UniProtKB/TrEMBL annotation:
It comes from Meloidogyne hapla. Residues 33-65 form a coiled coil. It comes from the Eukaryota. Residues 1-21 form the signal peptide. This is Pept_C1 domain-containing protein. Belongs to the peptidase C1 family. Keywords: Coiled coil, Hydrolase, Protease, Signal, Thiol protease. One of its GO terms (biological process) is proteolysis.
Length: 259
C-alpha cells in the first residue's frame, strides 16, 4: 500500500510537470509564429518599396528615351534656318509625346467630303497674287494689335477653341475695316459648345457653327481678366490635367456674324 501511494503520487507530479512544460512550449511557439509572420510581412514591404523604386527609375529612363524634342534636333533645325531660332522651352523640355498630346485638342473632321463641299459652296474664291512672304499684320495694319494677340491654352486641350476664337476676332476686325476690335471668349466656346469635348478636344468647325448660331461673348487671356468670360486657366501650370470649365448661366449674343 505504501509503495502504491508513492507510485500514484509520482505519476500525478509527472503528469502535472509534463502538462506545464507542454504549455510553456506552446506559449513559446506562438510568439515565434507571430514573429515569423512579421518577418514575412516586413520582407514583402521591403520588396514592394524596392520594386516601386525600380519602377520609378524605369519611368524616368523611359521618359528620357521618349522625349519628343532633343538638343540635337534643335541644333539641326537652326543650321538650315536663318530667320528664327529654335530652342527647347523649359515648359515642355521633360514632357513625353503622351503628355504633349494633351495639348493637341483639334479633332479631324468626321465627314471631310461634306465639309469641303459646304465650304466650296459658301465661299467666293478670288484669285490672289502669288506671295513669297505674307504677314497679315502688314496687310491689315489697322488690326495689327488684334492679330498680335496669342493666348496661352494652359494645361487644357483647348486649341480648337482658342485658335477659333482668335480667327473670329481677327475676321471681325478685318471685315469691319478696323472699326470693331473685340476679344472673343475661347472659354465660352470651350464650355458651351456641346458637340465637342472641352479640354479633351473638339472640332473648329463646331466652334464656328456655335458662333454663327448662338453667338459668343467677350473674353480675354487669364492674366488680363477682362470681358464677360476670361480664360479660366493660368499659363505655365504645374498640372497637365485641367477639366473643362462649367457652363455659365449667363449668355450674351452680342456679335454680328460676318459671312
Amino acid at each position: 500500500m505504501y509503495y502504491s501511494s508513492i507510485i500514484f503520487f509520482f505519476l500525478i507530479c509527472f503528469t502535472i510537470n509534463f502538462t506545464y512544460s507542454d504549455l510553456i512550449e506552446k506559449k513559446n511557439i506562438l510568439p515565434k509564429k507571430i514573429n515569423l509572420e512579421n518577418i514575412i510581412e516586413k520582407k514583402e514591404n521591403e520588396e514592394k518599396i524596392k520594386n516601386d523604386e525600380n519602377l520609378s527609375e524605369n519611368n524616368k529612363f523611359l521618359k528620357n528615351k521618349l522625349k519628343i524634342i532633343t538638343a540635337a534636333q534643335v541644333e539641326e533645325i537652326n543650321k538650315s534656318n536663318k530667320k528664327w531660332k529654335a530652342k527647347i522651352h523649359s515648359r515642355f523640355a521633360d514632357k513625353t509625346p503622351e503628355e504633349l498630346n494633351h495639348f493637341l485638342g483639334v479633332k479631324k473632321p468626321i465627314n471631310k467630303e461634306k465639309l469641303l463641299k459646304r465650304n466650296k459652296r459658301n465661299n467666293n474664291i478670288k484669285e490672289l497674287n502669288e506671295y513669297k512672304e505674307f504677314d497679315s499684320r502688314n496687310e491689315w495694319p489697322e488690326c495689327k494689335n488684334v492679330i498680335n494677340i496669342i493666348q496661352d491654352q494652359s494645361a487644357c486641350g483647348s486649341c480648337w477653341a482658342v485658335s477659333s476664337a482668335s480667327v473670329m476676332q481677327d475676321r471681325i476686325c478685318i471685315s469691319s475695316g478696323g472699326e470693331i476690335k473685340v476679344n472673343i471668349s475661347s472659354e465660352d466656346i470651350l464650355s458651351c459648345e456641346k458637340q465637342s469635348f472641352g479640354c479633351e478636344g473638339g472640332w473648329p468647325e463646331n466652334a464656328f457653327n456655335f458662333w454663327k448660331t448662338k453667338g459668343v461673348c467677350t473674353g480675354s487671356d487669364y492674366l488680363d481678366h477682362e470681358g464677360c468670360k476670361p480664360y479660366p486657366f493660368p499659363p505655365n501650370p504645374d498640372t497637365y490635367l485641367y477639366n473643362t470649365p462649367r457652363q455659365s448661366k449667363y449668355f450674351f449674343l452680342i456679335y454680328l456674324i460676318f459671312n
